[in-house]
Structure formats: C-alpha cells, structure tokens
Predict the 3D structure of the following.
Amino acid sequence: MEATTATASATHLLSVLIWLPAIAGLFILFLPRQSPGLLRAVGLGVGLIEFGKSLQLLIGSDYARGFRFVENAEWIPSMGIRYHLGIDGLSLWMVVLTTFLTPLVLHVSLGSIKARQKEYVAAMLILQSAMIGAFCALDMFLFYVFWELMLIPMFLIIGIFGGANRVYAAVKFFIYTFAGSIFMLIALVYMAVQFRALDAAHRYSFDYFDLMRLGFPRNTEILLFLAFAIAFAIKVPMFPLHTWLPDAHTEAPTGGSMILAAVMLKLGTYGFMRFAMPFFPGASHMIGPTIAGLSCAGILYGAGVAWRQRDFKKLIAYSSVSHMGFVMLGIISRTPQGATGAVLQSINHGVSTGALFLLVGVIYDRRHTRELSEFGGLAKVMPWYAFFFVLVTMSSIGLPFTNGFVGEFLIITGTFTAELLRIPYHVDRASGPAFVGLGPMFAAFAALGVLFGAIYMLEAVQKVFFGPLSNRKNRKLQDLNSRELTGLIPLAILILWIGLRPQDITKSIEPDVQSWIDQYEQKRQVVTRPGSTAPYLLSESDLRPPRRRAPSPAAH
Amino acid sequence: MSAVLQSLAQVAPQVSNFVSASPSTYPVLGLILLFPLIGSIINGFWGKKIGREGVYITGIATVAMSFVLSLLAYATLYKTTHAPVAEGAAHGPSQLSFLLWDWFRAPVGAGVVQLKIRYVLDELSGVMLLVVTGVGTLIHIYSAGYMSHDEGYARYFAYLNLFMFSMLNLILGDSLVLLFVGWEGVGLCSYLLIGFWYTNTAYANAGRKAFIVNRIGDVGVILGMTILAWKTGSFEFAQIRETLNVQGSTALTALAEKPEFNDVVAYFLSFGRTGLYDFWMRVIPEFTWGGAACFFLFVGCTGKSAQLPLYVWLPDAMAGPTPVSALIHAATMVTAGVYLLCRLSFVYVHFPSVLALIAVTGALTALFAASIALVQTELKKVLAYSTVSQLGFMFAACGVGAFSAGLFHVYTHAMFKACLFLGAGAVMHACRDKQDLRELGGLYKFIPHTFRTFLVATLAIIGTPFVTAGFYSKDELLFRALESQNSNHPWVGKFVFVVLVLAATMTAFYMCRLLFLTFFGKFKGWSLSKADYPEHVEHAHDDHGHDAHDDHGHGHGNPWDAPKENPALMYIPLYVLAFMSVVGGFVGLPYLFTHKESVWGEWLIRSAEHAGKPITDWAITMADPRVHTAEVTAMIAGFFAFAVGSGVAYWVYIKADGAPVRALASSARPLYQLMVDKWRVDELYDFVIVRPLRFASDVAAKFIDRWIIDGLVNLVGMIPRALSAVVRKLQTGVVHTYAAVMVFGLVAMIAWVEFRPTVSLAATVEANNRISLEVHGGPGYTYQWDPEGDGTFAPTNDEYTTTTRQSTTCTPQDTTDGRRVCRVAVRARNAFGYTTTVTRFIEVPTGDREGR
C-alpha cells in the first residue's frame, strides 16, 4: 500500500525465510531413510533456525506502518510477473505463527509418525515455505503459485499419513480448495489483461499495487469479488463451504491437523483482508452484510454441529468453523478494533486449536480412537493432560486472561460499533434511502457464540475427563510424556501471555490495520462514483487516504 | 468500628509508607492479588510434593496475608480519604490504585480507549474486599479440617486460592472489562469446585450447568458493557461516573437516546413497521441505549447471583464441598451481581424502569426461593434456596435504590450464611455426610459447638430483633423499600415491601424448621431405612440425592458411633462468624435509635451519592417525620415476620412433631409435590430450551451438514466423474500417482513459462508518428528489431542485441475502417536459445491531428 514510503530494507530476510525450509526439505529427501535421528535433527534444526530468523521481523515492528522487508525483482517481465515480497502488520504475526508452529509440530508429531518420516519432514518444510511465501507475496501470480503449492504437501500429508478414509479426505480437500482458487486465477488473469489495456506503457502486471489501481463498473466488480471470495471462503472455511474441513481434519495426522487449522485456514481470512476487500471495496461493502450474516451463521451453526459430534477431532474441526466465523466477522466489520481483533484471533485460534489437535492426538496415540464415548474419567489417570486440556479449553471458549477473550471481545465490540455494516431500506421515498445498521445484531449473535462455545467444549471435557473411569482400556493410560509436554508448554505460555499482555502483539497490528481501513475507505469513496461502464485506472493520488496522525505509544 | 479504623489508620502509614508512594501507586493492592495467585500456583503444581501440611499452610497463609494487607489497605484508604484536602484541590483522592500494565485498546463508539490492568480500592470495593478476604481466610482454615480425609486436598486448595484471586480481580478491577475477568474467573473456579468430585457424573453435570447458565448471563454482561462504553466513552467506573456527574453531561444524553427506528434491534423488533416501533416505545418506557445497557448487565447479574430466571444452577452447585458452598455460593461470588449493581449505581439511578424490574425480580426471587426452601429435605438444599432468597432481598434493595442497604445485607449475609453453611458442613462431617433432615435430629448434644454457632446464625438470618446483624440489615432494606419513590412506577416500593415481608416470614419458618429438625428432637441416626422417614416423599427425578454423597469418604468410623464434634480448626471459624453475625450489624444501627448516620451509611455515602439524581434522597429526608413512621413500620413488619415464621415452625416441629405438615402434604398433595419438585423449573427449561436446542443441533449435524451441504458438494463432485468414464482408467486411486502427476504438472507449467520466450512490447506514440518502443523480456533475453515493420530484422542472422528500447518514425498504413496503424516487430531469444517474434500494430492519430 505504501510501498514507497516503507522502510525498504536491503536484507533478503523474507527470501531466506521462504526458501530455507524448501531447500532443506528437498535436501532431506536425499538423506538416508535409516537414520531417523538425523532426519529429525535436520528438520527441527531448520525449523528452529527459521523461527529464530523470523523473530528478526519483529524488530522495530511496534507501531510501524507500511510494508517492510520489501524485495522487488523481475521474474517473468514479459507477463509482468514480479518477485515482490513484503510484510506488514497484517501478515507479520502470521509468518511468525507459522515459523513458531512448524518446529513444534515436527517435534511433537514425529513421536507418533514412525513410517516415512523422511517424506513427512520434507512435506512439512515445503509446506512451511509455501505458507510463508503466500503470506509475504505482493505479486498476485507469486501469491497464486504459493497458494497452490501449499496444497500439494498438505495433500500428501493427509493422503499418506492420514487415517482410514484418508484418500477420500485428501482428494476432497484438494479438489474443493483447488476448484475455488480456479475462480481467483481467472479473475486475476482478467485483471492483469485489463491492466495492460489501460496502462500507458501497455504492460501486463500482476503486481499488488498495480492491480490495486484498477477500478471496475459495479457488476464486474461484484463478479471479480465473488471469484476471489469463493477461493478464500473455502479456505477459511466459511459456512456453508466448510464440509471439506471436518473430513480433512478427521483423517489428517495430528501434525497435519495442527498446521491446517493453525495456519492454512488463516490464509483464507488473510486473503480477504489483503486482496479481496481492498481490490473491490465497492463490492465487498455491498456484500459485507451477507458475509457478516454467513459468519454469524457459521459461528452458531459450527458450534451447534460441534456439540453433537461423537468424534473428538470432528468436534474441534467444527469449532474451527465457529471460531473462523469470528475472524471473518471482525474483518468484515472494518472497524480498527474489530479487524485488529480478527488478526489477533487468527493467532489465538492457531495457538489454541493447534493445542487442541495436539491434545487429541495424545489420546489417539494411546487408544487409537477418537470416539468421545470411549473415554471418561481420564482426569484420574492423566492429571497433567487434564490440566492442559482444561487450560486450552478455557482459551478456546474465551475466558478472560487467556488469549481467546481479547480477540473475541475486540471482535464483538468492534462489530457492535461497525458503521459500514448496513443495509438500505426505504421509509420515505422522498428523502432517499435510509440505512439499518446491522452491527449490534451481528455482535449479539457473536456473543451468543461465546455461550455456545462453552456448551460444546465443556460437554466434551466432561465426557473425556470426568465421570467414573468406566472403560477398562483407559485404566493404564500414560500421562503426558516429555515430548508432548515440551510441545504443550510453549502453547500454554502463549495462551496466558497473549491473554495478559495482548498489546505486545496488537501494537504491531493496529497501525497497519488502521491504514488498511483508510485505504479501503478511500478506494471505496472513489469507486462508488457513478457512471463508469468500463474498467478504469486510478492514479496513486486517488488511492491515497487523507493524512492521519500515526499512533504512537504515547497516544493512548 | 470507626474507632478501630482510626487506630488502624494511625498505624497504617508507618507500615505502608515503604510500599506506597502515593494513592495512585499503591502496590499493596497488587500484593493482595498476588498472594492467592502464588498459593494457587504452588498448590496446583507442587501440591503433592509439599505434602498435606504444606498445602494447608500455603493455602491459608496466602489468603490470610491478603486479609492482613486488605486491612492495611483499608486503613490507608480511610486515612487518605479523610485527610485534609490539599489547597487548591476540589477534593482529596478518593481511591487507591495500582497500575500493572496496559492491557489492550478497545473500541468505544468511534473512538478507542486504552484498557489497563489496574486495581482500584475505594469505599465500595473496600467493604467487599474485607468481606471476601476475611470470610475467605476463615473458610480456608475450616477447609483444612474439612478436607483432611480427602485425597484431592492440593487441587482443592489450588482452586480455592485461584477463586480468591479471581474474586479479588472482580472487586478491585478498575474497569468493566477487568471486572469481567474476575466475573468469568470465579465462574471457572465455581465450575471446577462444584465438580470437584468429578468422578461423580451428577456433580460434574452440576458444575457444567453452573458454568453455562452463568455464561448466559455473561453474554448479557458483554453486550451491556459494550453499549455502556459505546455511549459513555469509557469502560472505567471512575470515568463513567465522572462523565455522568458532569452537569449537562453528553454521555447522559447519549444514554437516554432512544434507538432510532433504523437501529437494528428496534427495526427488527418492529418488523420494519413504524407503527409497531411507536408501540414498543410506548410500552417499554426505557427503550433507550442506557436502559438496554442496564438491562443486559442485570441479565448478567441474574446469572451470577442466581436470580429468576437464571437461579437454577445454584441449588445444584451444592454438589461441591461444603466450604465451597459457604465461600463461593453463599458469601462471596454470588453477591457479585449486587456488587456490580452498586458499582454502577450512578448509571442505574437514571433508569427507574430498569430499577423497578430489578426490584420486582429480586422480590419475586426472594419469595419463590423461600417457598421451595420450605419443604426441601436436604440440609444444603435448604440453605441453597435460602441463599437465592436472600440474594433476592439484596436485589430488591438495589432495585428500590437503596444500594447501600443492599450492600449491608451482602455483608451481614456473608457472615451468617457462611456460618450456616460451615455449620452444615460440620454436621455432615460429623454424621458421615448425612444431610437429609429426616435422618438427623437431636444433634445439639453431640456437636455442641456447631449447634451454638448454628443457632446464632439462624437467629441472625431470621432477623431476631435488636441483637442480630440480620435484623438490622433486613430492617434497613425493608424501610428503604417502603420509603422509596420510583418515578416511573410508584407502586414498586410498596409491592417489594409486602413481598419481602412475606418472604422474611417464610425465611423464619424454614430456617427454624432446619434448626429444629437438625439439632432438636431425637437423633434418628443412620439406622433408619428409607421407609421409616417421617416425612418421606418420593422424588425420583432428583438427580443427585443423598445416596450419591458417599464416595468422598470422611468421618468413617464404627457405624454405630454417635456423631463426634469436629476439630477446633473447624469450629473456631464458626465462632468468629457467629460473633460477627451478631455484632456485625451494629455498624448499621438505624437512624431511629441513634439519631445520626450509621457508620456504614456514612462510610458508603460517597458510593450512594449520585450527583444530580439520588433515587431515594435519604440524606435529606432523614429529618422528615414521615421517614420515622416508615422505619417504625418496617421494624414492626420485620418483627412480625420473625415472630410468625419462627412461632409457626416451633408449633409445627416441636409441639406437633411435624404432624401439620404431613396433614397438609396429604390434603394438598399436588401443591406440596410441586414445591418439593422446586416448581419443576428445571424440567421446564429442559423442555423449552435444552431439548429444542439439542434437536436443532442434531438436525444440523446429522441431516443438514451431511446430506444437504456436503451432499451438494459431493453431487457437484460427481458430475465430472460421471463425464469422465474414459479418464477413469487413469484414476488408479494411488495417492502417489496423483501426487506425482500434480507435481509433474506444476513443474511442467513453470518450465513452460521459463523456457518459452515470452516478451511484451510496449509502444508509446509521440508526435509526428514517432514511436518509442520498449520490450520487456527477462534476464538473458536478447533481441532483433524490426521497427519499420518491413520484415527485416536488425541485426541480421544469429546476432542479437541487448537493446530493449527503440524509437522510429513510421509510415502509417490506412486500414479499411479508417484508422492509421504502424507495424512494428521484435524477435526475442531467451537464454536457452528459443526465439519468438512479436508483431504489433500501433494506432497513430489520424492526419488532421498530425504535427500538433
């Protein structure tokens, strides 16, 4: 957005972050299968180096604005495709979340995956590359490549390392998400062609900032927005496009579920925030109330369906549908706090749902079943497990002083005051259209989601941990081992840390969210001018929002 | 009391000087919170390691430290607020506060505010602080005795300490959001402690029910505080109060705004009809944003403080250990709702209709719960319904605007109800967890300490005139109810008065019944079989009857042993509480006796003073003789309730040995049965709310999701499959093949792009048919140019140049449709030696524009 004004640092940190795991992943394929220790060491080592490197992104990120660590080089100039990377407050924490979770997932899941470890580690690392790439790409073609590249390792992880019905789940996952992104690709190509037609130098461009300058007549804009929205909504997944998720989660191995829920779903909401909405502010404004309605429906529907699940993983998968509804609601509210809450809630969901999948994996490893009815009274034999589970549950249902609360609270209050969520109605034709602001209603539904969350999570907790220890197979269950503990402790610390000091994170989100909204509003004002029948190109000054004082630590 | 305070205030500065820099940085508040948290962490993580004694000491000492520090803080507060006002300042500091750190930034309407983790002590929170830490300490001590045979002692103390921490958050938090932290935190601890003996499914259910019913209220709190902050611009109590107290406050105007027709709630409530909107505006007198905020917050209070219609969790909560019932479900947590109302009294006074709703709800709850308590046969169940009923008294007091009277009752109730619950625990502890009134009796000779304290506490709760705390607090709130003037609904005060007197009569009856059946008469022991129960009533649906209580064993001994008195660890707290149940009331002596403001009233006057709009302007009307009449009336009514209730109970249970009840039960069986079944409210909720919700979710999960939403997806997926009969041979079903094909496809795609030379030729037309050309290729690309478009490329043969720009003057050709175009071409070769030729026809301006 403000690429030129940003502190374009000369480092290639983002490139390193993107390509290091991929190269390591390919390298691992040539390592001997017989030495799992080496595989694990390389995988983990790369993951940790990656995480350490990614922490450099945080330096100076407080209250910073605009894209940072920008890299911009030609890739396929004839088609206007560039190797353009950069991060800002919207993507920064997503990258850090990815680098944080990947080594953790590798560490924990290598305890339960014994066969084909080499392929698993390689797939995980390549997946990490693709995800980071997608979060950093500022060229739409580059983004699309990473976006599709993600599917392959995840497809392999589900299809090879998954449960009994893994092939069906993997194919469904692949086809469903792929089918959605086809629409996005078509829209992208159309936009690039339009850009060429309008551009003075007559060149193609897939560059984010170039495409941002395109304006479209209303109907075209709506079609294009829908094309993007379908791709992203499937990924989120938004109700009613969610049915691939429970299947994928149920069949995926623990590590796959963790990454899928914790990071991959966020690419959907990130896509809405970064691309679909700023590109098409007029259309997304029109469709906003519908999206908010679907989000609320997803919150309640996901919770209701989760409540009636007998399979533990399915329950968590549907809870993801519910939680991601919150994130979408926060984004579509387009209020600074609502959207900041949405980004924060993305992180929170990554941490707590990741932890939940890890925890379910723990009992699955021991009992090879996820049927809730198989358990009961486990608190007696696995007290530490119960402790962590209840802690994560509290985070998941948004108990204050855990991370979940801050995100949900910001989203609910932000949505409540959202002025952009409104639909026109007519009382009096003479005085023109009047609007009903829908924010309070959506906020109330979301608040109900907080209640429903408690219902299904506590019922699950009770079924697993409380009651008599009646199933004989559970009498000898081992409590958490050191591997699982070392995986859970960082997550638990994060849960409390974000709950107690959310500002450590939000202060590097908020400024960019603010400029995201300003940018959005500015473009919306420009493109809603009536009268255009053909696409047109806006100048950079058209898109520049009116100056706003940069928030500083002092400005409370 | 004030003398004690003053002497403490003398000592306090010396002690606190080294920790306190100024009222705005008073770290003792942080320590008060920190100690229970530390205790909880130690007991939770290292409980087994430090052993039973270690856990007791940690648990008790941390809370006791909090109590001592609370006394210190309270004295400091007293001194600070009573210090001479500095020159030039309008008033001195009225609170102590301690900022931990900035929490997060939350939206308030268009703006945003910085929420802080900051704790504040003022008069109101000071009173609560002392009650909570004081009673908390006593109950921790008692627990050490009570839990001495339970193997989960470490977990128990960890939870209990965590509860103290949460409760202190609730009390000391400076903003609604921080209060909400404590609010949900105590809910969590309540959940954990009710389900403490989690192997019993019924107990675990009770815990879950408590949490979820509370969450219903919490939704109200979230919405209420969102609206309140949206309209007042702050989440902080002090700031909200300040904004409201300003003359001509804009925040007040904002709160008094009615939702426009096009505000979503009003719009949908009116189904988009202006006529219906006008109707709502007429029938709901306070259909304003402020009224909505107050209403939603009150919904939260009904959850936390077990009022109609959300009281149903509290009776079930008795599944927890008895000290927990005493601490959480009687003395402290359940009064949080009253505390919130008092905290926000300066908002509530502006919405008399909401207050009327609160008053009526409270009064009806008091009556309703008392009616259930009349016939319950379990010791703790009676006390639970009694608690619900007493909370109703407090809400009624707040509802009539007598917030300080409500809080006074919170305080006295904490003393005598904690004493009663602990006494009940002592009975159960001595009688091997027997708590059925039909099995007890005559215990006064076996457990004399328990009996004496229980007697005193009972006398207090039934409002024995002149000597007990219960009398003074009940009198205070009855009198204020009678005296109150609700500007929208003048009848509320009288109504509440009548209902409360009735409820107080019932209270006297059921509490005396409890006392008589437990301690008087003959000890029936544990030899009776079920059929021998004198008042036997079958209640099959009672989901955790007395049979369920035997899996947490303590007090095991010879089955024929007489009940034995408990250790001193348990009865000393009882004595302290019993003592307070008597003398605790003297801080609130009525004006009638002393002809001056009571210590309590004087101390809390700051909290009760709402600049602009006091709802019961008692500071002024005190001198009014009419008020004396009201006070005398209230006192007589209170005495009447006490005398009739206890007299009838004496007659029924001592004189007639329960015969009248049996007669009544057989003659009015349906009514009696309904009361025993708690008016079947649980069943009603189950039928009206829980089952439909579960049914809808079942339909969603088992039908809609699987067959409609996913069915459509699979259907769409089947179409290409049906078309691809030919391709089916390729579908080997082996994932590796798919994966390999996909990887190959992707690689091929990238390779195709990389190997095939693709260039774009950009042209800019300048004046006089001059054209600038620029070719975009890539690294390693070289070119041959044909700018004239005549088919000769330069350089020739296999030589290529790296020049990417050319400019030329072309000779335009006319096209058939009247345009003039120039033909230009470029041949590009990439690093792999592949070439491609791009030809473009560039439109130039027609002749008449030439040369411009």
In short: Residues 281-508 of chain A form one domain. Residues 37 and 43 of chain A are 10 Å apart (CA to CA). Chain A touches chain B through 94 residues (CB under 8 Å).
